[in-house]
Amino acid sequence: MTTIVNWLPAIFAALMGLAILIYAVLDGYDLGVGILLPRDSEEQRDQMIASIGPFWDANETWLVLGVGLLLIAFPAAHNIILRELYLPATIMLCGLILRGVAFDFRAKVGTAYLKARWDNIFTIGSIITALSQGYMLGLYVVGFEYTLLNVSFAIISALGVTAAYTYIGGSWLIMKTEGLLQQRAIIWTRRVGWLTLIGVLLVSIVNLIISPYILYKWQQTVYGFLLLPVPIICFGLFWLNDRILRHMSKQYQKNQHQDMLCWLPFCNTVVIFILCFIGLAFSFYPYVIPQEITIWQAASATESLQFLFWGAVFVIPTIIAYTIFSYRVFWGKAKPLDYY
After folding, report:
1. Which residue, 129, 51, 145, 49, is CA-closest to 94?
2. Burial 279-312 (b: 16+ CB within 10 A, else e)
3. What is the pTM of this model?
4. Which tens digit of pLDDT belongs to each residue from 36-45?
């Protein structure tokens, strides 16, 4: 029991990281779908919304869980992060509100014109949310220092995260749709894949340049050597996805497309997200505020963590089970949503 108590801050940090990773994957793809909504086809927009309809609201549960764990397990870090990111966090919430309102209203309006307007608002909300999250990530990486270079990096990070969400969103559409929309999704995903790769490279290089601590961890420690395959595999998966998408596109052009491997680009993209997260987690551990506060320094009192631990033991498996169940129920290609 003493061992568990000593490791409670690390356990809660791992749970918080898990929640953020799952959120980035699950809400990432539905944000990406929102960003990709085409303006020239109401039928395709309906298909795309139907592909995320059963999941998108529940996906945001993981964001609430991650922020909640930060608040209750690391209150000192929560105060600093919220203070430094108050404005972009507020903008992100506005984007989420726009998405929620547009999703419901698009199904209730009586004309195609108003429906298209709400679809545009859904896209705007998705872009705002993705950019805000990327901007916050960039500021977090540079330690919340508002210099011209750091803000420029945060803007690059915002564009990179938006591209990554679009990438996984396009991969999701390839898996969940058929026909012309799937063909368009293949083209979208392949194009944005290269932008995502550039974003990952830029963020990785800047991370190593601005932080001697991170550079040391990757170059001079045993763990850095053991994790060296992570970036290699990550970039290899980008290349593999591009080859798969190119092959799919050629099959469509020859009217020889077979849908057996439609799941592969999405699975590869999920692995890319996981590997990028592993790289970030290794770079900053054990700091919860980069180079300032460790998870042990920011943690709540041991008695509080012990009490919260048993709650987490019950709540987190329940959320995971519900998530798995919902995806199992709505397995397969997207079907039209029926609100009546």
Report:
1. 129
2. bbebbbbebbbbeebbbeebbbeeeebeebbeeb
3. 0.93
4. 999 888 889 9
